[in-house]
Batch of 2 targets.
Target 1
Amino acid sequence: MKRKFQPETLMMSHGYRPEWSEGAVKCPIFQTSTFAFRTAEEGKAFFEVAYGLREQGAREKTGLIYSRINNPDMEILEERLKLWDGAEAAAVFESGMSAISTALFEFLQPGDLLLYSNPLYGGTSHFVHHVLTKFGINVLGFRPGATRAELVQLIEASGKKDRLGMIYIETPANPTNDLVDIAMCRSVADQFSTPERRALVTVDNTYMGPLWQHPLRHGADLVLYSATKYIGGHSDVIAGACLGSAERITRVKTLRTFLGNMIAPHTGWLLLRSLETLKLRMEKQTENAQIVARRLARHPKIAKVYYLGLLSPEDGEAYAIYQRQCSAPGAMVSFELKGGEREAFAFLNHLKLVKLAVSLGSTESLAQHPATMTHAGVDPTEKAAFGITDALVRLSVGVENAEDLWWDLEQALDKVPAWVDTTVEMV
Ligand SMILES: *Cc1c(COP(=O)(O)O)cnc(C)c1O
């Protein structure tokens, strides 16, 4: 009888056989730029498939040619990564931004409309506003919490409703954990699609994936990752991934070949190693985050905590989306101190264990100040509208001992000057 193993079981073996490499149990680093063909006929056949000159035979393996096109570390990583999301195919990149920019370039045409959720990751926001617009793509953002009717109205009012190319979302949003309903976006995209032209739904799943949210199951066409975050998980690599149907990922890989932004063999190998502990790490991180978030919510110097694990039925639609879409609350906790930048900085400057750094999803806990760091480039009025205040701190919770972590957060909070409401004092 054949057993279907779970992804965490397959991370140590899937897609690799020791006999390929002198019996090595672990997949080696294939640090080579080019691969020797056995015969000229074989080289010809490999190129025909790689360049799409003919269909690949049912039994035919894609031959190794040149490491910009393919490499065992890249391909085995893709085979393993796709298991978590139940995707047909995956393409891995040298950064999250290269995965995002390649997917957007491949699937958008001049004249198309791109509808996106706010707030977006800073790099993506810059790419959308300053690069895509240069290529004649119309871009339009919607606010956190927007309803289906609002999305439809925005598209109709844009004058481009017959050119909706893609709805691009980040959920939960960074740094406030606002949720976007993926299935709702699918239904809006369907409403503006025709049999000849499907409006795609693309989800940047960096914040929750690949464990706690599987966008393809909710109707997304493409899933994107900064693999620098949870997938890499040790703050020692920059990498990215794009997942979806075999047909779409073939298109993404073809553009990747010509942009030349594929993952390097050594980075691919590091990520293969990271994937073996992915579930263990993410489970411990979410367990720690739940402990920390609950205690922060009760602390007298804290005004508000944004954490999916604190949502309750009173939160209405957000809670309903969370229940449908996510299997755990994750390890990203944002909170507002009572006060402003002075109080937030005092807290950050007194942390002893938690590092003051951007990025997220790693084994070590990291804290940063979105208003002046990751979201420094966001327009001030939009910042206020999205809840990115001067008193907001974002925390990525790691795998440390939870009591040690709490000790650090609490001692730093103790050092924050007691906040006096100056607006009242001045009266
Ligand atoms: C970090 C990040 C990116 C960009 O990824 P890089 O690996 O830094 O290029 C994109 N989206 C989100 C949500 C991120 O956190």
Target 2
Amino acid sequence: MTVPTATPPDGVCTDHPEGVTHVSRIETVIRRALAGLIAVGAALAAGEIVSVAVSSFSSPYFAVGALLVDNAPAPVREFAIRTFGTSDKQVLLTGMAIGIAVLAIVAGLVERRTKPFGSVLVVLFGIVGIVAAFQRPTATATYVFPSLAAIVVGVLVLRVLTGYLGARRNAAAPEQDGLSRRAFVGLAATAAVAAGGVALVGRAIANAGNAISERASLKLPTPRVRAKAIPAGSNIDVPGATPFVTSNQSFYRIDTALQVPELKTSEWQLRIHGMVDREMTLTWDDLMGMQPVEKVITLTCVSNQVGGDLAGNATWIGYPIKDILAKVGVQADSDMLFSTSVDGWTSGTPVSALTDGRDAILAVGMNGQPLPLEHGYPVRQVVPGLYGFVSACKWVVDWELTRFDRKKAYWTERGWGQMGPIKTASRIDVPASFAQVPAGEVVIAGTAWAQHRGIEKVEVRIDDGPWEVAQLAEEYSIDTWRQWSYRWQATPGQHMLYCRATDKTGQLQTEERTPPIPGGATGWHNRVITIT
Ligand SMILES: Nc1nc2c(c(=O)[nH]1)N[C@H]1C(S)=C(S)[C@@H](COP(=O)(O)O)O[C@H]1N2
Ligand SMILES: [Mo]
């Protein structure tokens, strides 16, 4: 940075009849840093508003984020999910914002009249945005515009705020800002307010008449046959126990989407192609002309740790996948349904699991409402017995019938398994970890699942005692989880509680502790509590 050797007091210098300003070193640094921040903020705002016109997926900020998500090495991703859980996206976006702010300050500090390093940095950011936007599955040539707008606005604002554009050049100190303090503050405030306003207006336009407002008034089709009623006995009457049906608000959410796709029913299509006798494209109206079914199915994520809560049970409304596959005619040597989401994520589901008679559905409703946007609005897949990463494609828009030896889906490409059968699991929900409970009768309660095989038995062990059979809640179906409880005469002291389940094929839950990757965690859940 060029700083005048003798720093006169701030303000207008009386030596210069033109009113050229001298600025102290510290004020110069602050001005430059602010100029960089405001310029880059304005650039991002410009990118966002143009992306409203192009496509939300063309936003340079989110495109760069998506690029990071899709290319994060497996250990980094594992760490992020373990450490931040489902707030990993917020953490990434915040981290990006901090990184960008630092680079923006640098850009401001290094900008010069004839050596515009800061502007070059802004252009480089923009180019990264363009490259990232073109990686989006929906990219078209127009995806260049948001980043181009960001570049133009960023460079212009930076040049103006550093006084290199539109302000009088200071002949005595050509690298010094030619702006008076008042002019700088006025321009900086104007640019900051304008950028903020543009960003807000962009949000508002994007939200008007979009999928969110459509969903609020969407009428779900009425299934002719409702799901079997949930018997009262499927819920256990223990305070703190996991409810049999998970509300949409508390249903776990796992996906790679930094921006929840906003797809309207009128924009939704499912193209079915590949190893089929008749290619077909389904629209929302086509679906509405078909017979919906209603099913209660428990979903589970392969990333769930022993004792973890990445599982949920809902009543789904949708269309049997096997009926749709029958319409297109799956060729005999096709063994995989390769599904693609509108955000580019893919899953590969064994055709056998979709046609063997189980309730695999193309779902449009969840617990009596249209799918929440984060759970796949308007259409997703739900397949009993398989982990979500091989089966539960949200925002699904493309089905290719293919073979496992020809294609690999998103997570399989990143080191996870291929077929994804759900492993038998059981967990203790009550009492809480490290709870202090008075001696006497203590109810231990939990959840167990082995979707599409069913839960036969759950056993509980206290410390090194014998395994005792727990009481099972009434079974709804083999595709749903099952609650259990055990009454224990607790004696004072610290105790370790264990549980394990046996599925209906007679297979006992695996004792050996293994991590979630590649095919789901194994091991018996345990919990330490203190009886007082
Ligand atoms: N488009 C898309 N669909 C997806 C995913 C994803 O990342 N993108 N994740 C899958 C995984 S790993 C799981 S466990 C389930 C979770 O569904 P939920 O978020 O509705 O609970 O969605 C599946 N469908
Ligand atoms: Mo998952």
